[in-house]
Amino acid sequence: MKTKQKQSTRSGFGQAMAELGRNKKVVALSADLIDSNKLNAFIDKYPQRFFQAGVAEQNMVSMATGLALEGKIPFACSFGVFVPMRCLDQIRVSVCYNQANVKLVATHCGLATGEDGATHQALEDVAALRSLPGITIIEPCDYNQTIKATKAAAKLKGPVYLRLHRAKFEDLTRKTSSFQIGKAQVLQKGQKITIIGSGPIITEVFKAAKELKFKPEIINCHTIKPLDSETILKSVKKTRKVLVVQDHQVIGGLGSAVTELLSEKYPVKCKIIGMPDQFGESGKPTELWHKYGLDSRNILKEIKSLIK
Amino acid sequence: MKKLTKIKELQLMANTIREDLMIMLTNAGSGHCGGPLGLVDIFTAFYFNILKHDSKKLNWDKRDRLILSPGHVCPVRYAAMARAGYFRKEELLTLRKMGTRLQGHPSRQDLPGIELATASLGQGLGAAVGMALAGKLDRKKHTIYCVTSDGEHDEGSTWEAVNAAAKYKLNNLINIIDRNNIQISGHTQDVWPLKNLKERYEAHNWKVFEINGHDFKQIISMVEKAKKIKQPVCIIAYTIPGKGVSFMEHQFSWHGKTPKAEEAARALTELNKERERIMKRK
Known about the structure:
The complex is a heterodimer of chains A (308) and B (282). By secondary structure, chain A is α/β, with parallel strands linked by helices. In chain A, 36% of the residues lie in helices and 19% in strands. In chain A, the strands form two sheets. Chain A has a seven-stranded mixed sheet with strand order 2-1-3-4-6-5-10, sandwiched between helices. A five-stranded mixed sheet of chain A has the order 7-9-8-11-12, with helices on both faces. Chain B contains nine helices and seven strands. Chain B has a five-stranded parallel sheet, with helices on both faces. Chain B has a two-stranded antiparallel ribbon with strand order 4-5. Chain B has a single domain (7-280), classed as Thiamin diphosphate (ThDP)-binding fold, Pyr/PP domains (Rossmann fold, 3-Layer(aba) Sandwich), CATH 3.40.50.970.
């Protein structure tokens, strides 16, 4: 069932790590952000398998590479503005070129990071990572899904980036909902338009959808790479209209992945809602989404404009 | 592969590897000469004496790990690996050619036996720290060796790794710095401050030794000594870039270029004369 209580995706990660610790290969690293990364429970249970990396994200990723090449499953955690943004070179050469089994975990992604302001709102992370060969990028939509995504990431051999969030939202999925890396989830079957999103911002999509006289098709595209082209194409062939909603810069995010696919395979009318090539500022997540047009009001407006 | 214990045997092997380097680099037509030639004695000591390894069992769990952080000097590792039986020496001529396993900078995915793909400087030591942490966690006995360059101590990430090794008291990690005093734009002291390397490592709570990187006795005995020390050890190995070829020695202009055919012929003549001198030694 869905939990009524609002929870963050980063808390789902913390919960999953406490459970994953049973696997002795699982180790965790944090660049001085234990609380923020929700690693306390893991550290309480498995202190010997936690490595404090200090405020040194580049070296954390290098250490994680070494641990992975020796058979460990390291989860290297920080804020999205530091991992991947500060250590992209280490991720490219040490992690991806070596195909090291490193899990990169970024909490505090998107405008939803809120009050900390522009410097701490990772809005470019997906764009930075998406072109790296061999990396899997996952942005779960809620607490429940993050638990499953974290466990699935541990099972998958190869580099994974988990894009997580600080703000709390109601669950969109159930504890029993299935989750498979690379398999997009149709949250609502519908018509006229396909709305594709990732992360908790999908809650805004549902708010907008309630105002419509029809049911749009809503896809939770939690795996941004590799993109589930099959599910997306199947839906788009039916609706022939696409709106992508992402708490990320318009440039280079999920919307870019979707439109790269559609422009080759099935060109239709598309619109990407995201941060319009600007830095953010301090404010509450919902206030920021409103100001920059990522909220339900603007989503509704764009749906109406697309289906006109 | 037979372990070489006599200095003369090691010197002859090093001479052979220098010849290999001249031939493969000339054939490749691009690459680096200074660094690889300067590291020949250290790599010969490692592959033919120091390392616990088996060229036929690449994933042997108990093998020592050797990380080469400045990936651009990889030809010396390729030549040492070929001579140590990892692959046929004829393959050395494929260096940098289309389809080769001997990529311009080393690729773990292409060539088994390469522990870590490296190239972008300042990443090897951090990965070595990670490997050492894993070794500690599993109570393994092997040693993690990392060869770093002096130039890559310009990178802040190298110093992040230096700190990390000290924090975790990694006595299974030995960093050998190739102190050849050159980098691509010139002499290290002219490019970027690199003074007091020893003191800087000591300030980070490492044990530091200094050796002549061309003296097999010093290389081997210092590594033996380092293995018994209960903290991370840095061995600053003073080397001569281009060692063994007179017109390349100490010349930073030879950092990133390869010889023309006539230059290679001169180099091989010199190396051949050196071989004769070694043979005459007791």
